[in-house]
Write a structure and sequence with these properties.
- With 681 residues, this protein is α/β, with parallel strands linked by helices.
- It is 42% helix and 12% strand.
Length: 681
């Protein structure tokens, strides 16, 4: 449901006078109308409590009703509530199974535990609460039960904890390594934002406290030297901006966002000291090299210098609005060495245009690539470039990136590439450049390109801390993710990983979700999962032996229909290829992808085709082994992978269609189909 509906309805209701309990009930029902109250919808309701246009219109009972729904403590809560007999207040249990108790302004594991004193103890204290916040439902608030004075005390202690880990000191005194200090800053950031969200803005003292917390948070984000933590802090504040009710507060968030999501290419660095040359290097798939060189020449570029069959130097002078730009474009054939010029301060734009090889080419080119020197813009024009965003960001966190969302074609990529270069020559903003590309409905009919200013799309595709949770929903950046040794002989058999589920390395979970987004090439999923519908949701803790290996849940994030992909933590030892295969098998059995009219056999055949697709697009060489283990896990009879693989792509529908099912039925034959039906029960 569009968030504006909540605000518009509130505006209509307040026009009649006071906002009473019936009005608040109507607003809550409106938020619930989509079946699930989203984070943004909760924040839209929450902002009404502090907005001058509404806050004084609530009746006392109506305000309490809304606060209760949102999990916000009332301003009338006693400033010093009675403590428990043991002297602490329980906030819940974190994913490690540890109790989180608020005591003396700190967090401890039990009410009789000593308060933290040494640096590492302080880090453990704030991590206790941050891990609880990270695993909590976004609509709730861990600090809602704290009284006003407790929140003030908490804020003072968080600022004290921050002084222990300054970002300009790699390993502060009292810490063993840099990761401990980074985790403490990350935990402080998560707690500060949760504290900001917990404050009752109808209470003048809590509004003043919110201003102080916001200023501290902003200073922390601006000083942060670790890109993934800085970016997470800025984005999470922006994504909770509805709890900021004044123009001055919102401008703080907007100012930080201009650092996180650049509003323009790095013109100041590129064109300083009178430089008027834009140096561009583009590696092109060999089969496209000649045609792309011709396209550039047809668009006004002239050939300069000495060329060869694999290297052509082109140049074009552009004069716009009194500004001269000489575009030097070096075209190279093949993907090898795509990122070599990232280390050259004199190169401004690095590009690739060619086949993706189902996401293999760019990761291969990144291996052994040099570090970035000078600010770079990178354009990756291939099918489903979004699947490489995380690997690219790992290597080049500060580079600006333009890439594709879905399949792409040479003329579309050239159109975007040329419009980006034209926009740079005119010194235009990213919003202006993106609008020029998106308004060209003839050559960009599918809105197929990411730009550096596309914040939500970027965060859906990123998992910067590799915990398996997409950054768009990840409220705690982890620096202590533990990898579990892969056991390829038993990867479809559950086993306790020996670590809390929120501390497991989840790269394979995130990668599985990204590859699942390529199934927009499949008739089985296209109608329900266009674009970036699948995101990683990390691991979940199983409650019984019957819990699945992969779980897919439908939700809405920023009003976008989304499918969260989570993996049972007892399968953390499975290989990335196995997790992808099981994830594809699961999606076929999960509504709405599983249709009501489909028989068990029909659903199983769809699943097998999707699994065969998964195995064909990964970079491993264990396809038959994984296939056999998956069949055994689901109690299916022996089915040859080579019988299924030829059925995946029929009539250029790359990941399954009705024609695929028909072809697979023919290849398996009636006896094998009957055996599958019998196994399915």
């Amino acid at each position: 449901m569009p968030i504006t509906q909540i605000r518009n309805t509130a505006q209509r209701l307040v026009a009649d006078g006071a906002l009473d309990r019936r009005d608040v009930g109507a607003l809550i029902d409106l938020a619930k109308s989509g079946g699930r109250v989203t984070w943004s919808e909760r924040n839209a309701l929450r902002s009404l409590l502090g907005d001058p246009a509404y806050r004084d219109a609530f009746t006392a009972e109506a305000r309490l009703d809304l606060q209760a729904f949102l999990g916000i403590a009332s301003a009338s809560t006693p400033s010093t509530p009675p403590a428990s007999a043991a002297g602490g207040r329980s906030l819940g249990t974190n994913p490690a199974g540890e109790s989180v108790v608020f005591k003396g302004g700190w967090f401890v594991a039990s009410a009789d535990a000593a308060l933290p004193a040494r640096p590492l103890e302080i880090g453990s204290s704030v991590y206790l609460a941050a891990s609880l916040i990270g695993a909590a439902d976004h609509g709730s608030n861990v600090f809602a039960s704290l009284a006003r004075d407790e929140k003030k005390q908490l804020f003072q202690n968080l600022e004290l904890a921050l002084l222990k880990v300054p970002p300009d000191v790699e390993v502060p005194q009292g810490y063993d390594d840099a990761l401990q200090a980074r985790q403490q800053r990350s935990s402080i950031a998560t707690c500060l934002l949760e504290l900001m969200r917990s404050l009752d803005l109808a209470d003048p003292q809590q509004r003043l406290l919110q201003d102080s917390v916001l200023k501290s948070y902003a200073r922390m984000a601006e000083a942060e030297t670790v890109p993934q933590l800085r970016d997470s802090m800025v984005f999470q504040l922006f994504n909770n901006k509805d709890c900021l009710v004044t123009d001055e507060q919102r401008e703080v968030s907007n100012r930080l966002m201009r650092l996180f999501a650049p509003t323009q290419p790095p013109y100041d660095e590129w064109f300083r000291d009178g430089n008027d040359r834009l140096r561009v290097v583009c590696h092109t798939g060999g089969e496209f090299f000649d045609s792309e060189v011709k396209r550039w020449k047809d668009s006004g570029f002239g050939e300069v210098g000495t060329s060869s069959g694999s290297r052509v130097q082109l140049e074009k002078t552009v004069e716009r609005n009194g500004v001269k730009t000489v575009i030097e474009l070096t075209m190279l054939s093949g993907s090898s060495g795509t990122f070599e010029k990232m280390s050259d301060p004199g190169t401004h734009v690095v590009a690739y245009s060619g086949h993706a090889s189902w996401g293999r080419n760019i990761p291969s080119a990144l291996r052994g690539a040099p570090d970035e020197a000078g600010q770079k813009l990178v354009l990756i024009h291939q099918c489903c470039g979004r699947g490489t965003i995380n690997k690219f960001h790992d290597k080049y966190p500060d580079a600006q990136l333009v890439t594709t969302r879905n399949s792409s074609y040479e003329h579309e990529d050239f159109n975007t590439f040329s419009k980006v270069l034209d926009g740079i020559a005119e010194r235009r903003s990213w919003a202006s450049i993106a609008n020029t590309v998106r308004s060209d409905r003839c050559r960009n009919s599918r809105d197929n390109y990411y730009f550096p200013s596309d914040v939500m799309l970027r965060m859906r595709a990123l998992d910067a801390d590799h915990d398996g949770v997409a950054d768009v929903v990840d409220r705690l950046v982890h620096f202590n993710a533990c990898s579990v040794a892969t056991d390829t002989a038993a990867e479809f058999k559950p086993r306790d990983p020996g670590q809390p589920f929120d501390r497991l390395s989840g790269t394979s979970v995130h990668e599985a979700a990204q590859i699942m987004n390529t199934t927009t090439f499949s008739d089985f999923t296209e109608a329900y999962a266009a674009g970036e519908s699948f995101i990683g949701a990390g691991y979940f803790q199983p409650t019984s032996e019957d819990d699945p290996m992969v779980r897919i849940r439908q939700t809405r994030i920023d009003d976008v229909l989304t499918y969260e992909v989570a993996v049972n933590s007892h399968y953390a030892h499975a290989s990335e290829e196995a997790i992808k295969a099981e994830a594809f098998y699961t999606v076929a059995h999960t509504p709405p992808f599983k249709q009501d009219g489909d028989s068990k056999l029909e659903t199983c055949l769809k699943a097998l085709i999707l699994v065969a697709h998964s195995l064909s697009v990964d970079s491993g060489y264990r396809d038959d082994e994984i296939w056999k283990q998956l069949l055994a896990k689901h109690g299916l009879p022996e089915i040859a992978l080579w019988d299924v693989s030829p059925c995946v792509d029929v009539n250029h529908v790359y990941a399954g269609s009705a024609a695929s099912i028909a072809k697979l039925r023919d290849r398996l034959g009636s006896a094998k189909l009957a055996a599958i039906e019998q196994a399915l029960g």
